[in-house]
Amino acid sequence: MERGGNDVDERTQRSASHAVVEAVASAEGVPTDALCPPEYEPLNSVIDPDALDSLFADRPDGRHRSGGTVSFVYCGYRILVEPNGSVTVEPRSGLEGFEDS
């Protein structure tokens, strides 16, 4: 990937939290079911997965949400979730101005 991260860019029926787990597992080279304690921190230790899913779920009338992003650090990566379903995963090392929550 050009920016040094892994992008997952597809709008599907999967939730934003599941897309994050898939993207981090891919970056780590492990299956999604291996992304669990004790080797990996659970996603809910850094962000509420239900809240994340709600932010990026389609509106009640079926329209896609058109704005807003969420970024956070998870498993040593900077995660960026966008309303189009895109999840960008970048190694945290060398990222200026981005702190753990």
UniProtKB/TrEMBL annotation:
Halobacterial output domain ranges (all copies): 13-91
InterPro entries: HalOD1 (IPR040624)
Protein name per its UniProtKB record: Halobacterial output domain-containing protein
Species per Swiss-Prot/TrEMBL record: Natrarchaeobius halalkaliphilus
Biological classification of the source: Archaea, Methanobacteriati, Methanobacteriota, Stenosarchaea group, Halobacteria
